[in-house]
Design goal:
It is built from 14 helices and twelve strands. The protein is an alpha/beta fold.
C-alpha cells in the first residue's frame, strides 16, 4: 500500500506533467485573449459552475487586484436574472471543463446576441463552448490526478495557472508595478511592505533643523526636545549636513565651543520620498544607521525616516 507521502508526490508529478503540456499548448489565441481584455471598456465577466466556478472566482480576484476590473457571475444564476450584469462593453470569460453543460448555454447565447466577446476555457475542443467562443483556449489532454479520473484535479490546476498567466501578461502590458499595487493594497502586511517613505517619515516641521552657525549646544537641546536622534543642518535653506548622536559623542571634548557646521557630517545618506519603506529599511541595515534623511535630491529635506517607526509596521 502506498504511503501518503508517495501519494502526495505522485499527485504532484501528474499535475506537473499537465502543466508542462499546458505550457507547450500556449498559442496565438493567448495573445488574442490578452489584447481583447486590454481593449475592454467595461469589465471582464467571469463565469463557471462547480469547481470551474471556484477557479473563475480566484482568477477574477487576481485580475481585479492587479488592475483589471472583473466581476463573477454564477452560470446558473445567469439564467435567472444575472445576465443583466453583462453589457456590450464587457468581455466574458466562461470556464467549463466539459464545455457542454446546460448551465452555460444561456450565457453563450447572450454573448452571441449582444456581440460580447467570449473567451472560452475548456478541455474539450469539440465542445459547445469552444465551438462558439470568439477566442477558444483549449486545455491539453492530461489525466486527472484523481485515481478514478472523476474529481477535477489536473484540469483545475491547468485552468488556474492559465488564469495566472493571463493576469501576469496583463500586468506586464499595463506596466502595473509596485506603485500601482500599493494603491490597490493599502491594508495588511502587503500594504505595510508597499508603503512609501513619505507616508511614514517624521515631517520637516517635526524634526530638529539648525542653521550652519547655530551653537551645537542649542542643537542638542532641540534634538532632546523633539526626541529625534538626527538634526538637519542648513545654509540658505539647503541641507549641508546632518548631526547624529554619534557626531555629538565624537566631538564631546569641544562641543560647547562649536557651531553646527563644524560637527555635522556632510556626506549623509538620504532616500527619496517615493521609495518603499521596505527598501529604505534595507538601506539602513546595509549602512548600519537608524535614521535616514528624506529628500529627493539631498539638498531639500522633507523629513526623517526612523528605524523604530518602520519596525512598528
Amino acid at each position: 500500500m502506498n504511503s501518503d507521502i508517495e501519494i502526495a508526490r505522485g499527485t504532484i508529478d501528474i499535475e506537473i506533467e499537465a502543466l508542462v503540456k499546458l505550457k507547450d499548448s500556449i498559442s496565438q489565441n493567448f495573445i488574442r485573449a490578452v489584447d481583447t481584455i486590454l481593449a475592454c471598456q467595461g469589465r471582464v465577466i467571469f463565469s463557471g459552475i462547480g469547481k470551474s466556478g471556484h477557479i473563475a472566482r480566484k482568477i477574477a480576484a487576481s485580475m481585479t487586484s492587479t488592475g483589471t476590473p472583473t466581476y463573477f457571475v454564477h452560470s446558473t444564476e445567469a439564467s435567472h436574472g444575472d445576465l443583466g450584469s453583462l453589457t456590450k462593453d464587457d468581455v466574458c470569460i466562461l470556464i467549463s471543463n466539459s464545455g457542454g453543460t446546460k448551465e452555460i448555454s444561456d450565457l453563450i447565447s447572450f454573448c452571441k446576441r449582444f456581440a460580447i466577446p467570449l473567451i472560452g476555457i475548456s478541455s474539450k475542443s469539440e465542445s459547445t463552448l469552444i465551438q462558439n467562443a470568439d477566442i477558444p483556449l483549449v486545455l491539453p489532454s492530461a489525466p486527472e490526478a484523481c485515481p478514478n479520473q472523476l474529481a477535477p484535479t489536473s484540469s483545475t490546476t491547468m485552468t488556474l495557472v492559465l488564469g495566472d498567466a493571463l493576469t501576469v501578461a496583463l500586468m506586464k502590458r499595463r506596466t502595473f508595478g509596485r506603485h500601482e499595487f500599493s494603491i490597490l493594497h493599502p491594508g495588511g502586511a502587503l500594504g505595510n511592505q508597499l508603503m512609501q517613505v513619505k507616508h511614514l517619515m517624521l515631517p520637516r516641521q517635526n524634526i530638529p533643523i539648525a542653521q550652519h552657525d547655530t551653537p551645537v549646544m542649542e542643537v542638542v537641546l532641540n534634538m532632546t526636545h523633539r526626541a529625534c536622534g538626527l538634526a538637519i543642518v542648513e545654509r540658505d535653506s539647503q541641507t549641508i549636513g546632518v548631526i547624529s548622536d554619534g557626531d555629538l559623542r565624537r566631538n564631546i571634548d569641544k562641543l560647547e565651543a562649536r557651531v553646527a557646521k563644524e560637527v555635522a557630517t556632510p556626506d549623509f545618506i538620504y532616500v527619496d520620498p517615493e521609495t518603499l519603506v521596505m527598501n529604505a529599511v534595507d538601506k539602513m541595515n546595509e549602512m548600519n544607521i537608524y535614521n535616514l534623511v528624506v529628500s529627493p535630491d539631498g539638498r531639500n529635506t522633507h523629513g526623517i525616516l526612523r528605524m523604530h517607526d518602520c519596525l512598528r509596521l
